[in-house]
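In response to the reviewer comment on reproducibility (Comment 2.3), we provide here a single inverse folding case reported in full, input and output, so that an independent group could reproduce the run without further information from us. The structure tokens appear first.
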């Protein structure tokens, strides 16, 4: 890691704050590895995996 970024989202901590953080991580990644627990599409993990799919990032999904 070469840089630490404080997102300082105005709604943190909240679901929107976490989603903002996760979108930023995906945007800065070449690929995404997700470890979802269950199939709830409302979970933060699935939200992030679906966001990565939406912007055409390669994904490796390993359910636990």
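Designed residues, in position order:
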């Amino acid at each position: 890691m070469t840089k630490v970024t404080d997102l300082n989202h105005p709604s943190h901590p909240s679901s929107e704050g976490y989603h903002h953080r996760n979108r930023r991580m995906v945007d800065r990644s070449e690929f995404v590895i997700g470890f979802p627990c269950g199939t709830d599409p409302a979970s933060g993990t699935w939200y992030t995996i679906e966001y990565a799919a939406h912007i055409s990032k390669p994904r490796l999904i390993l359910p636990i």
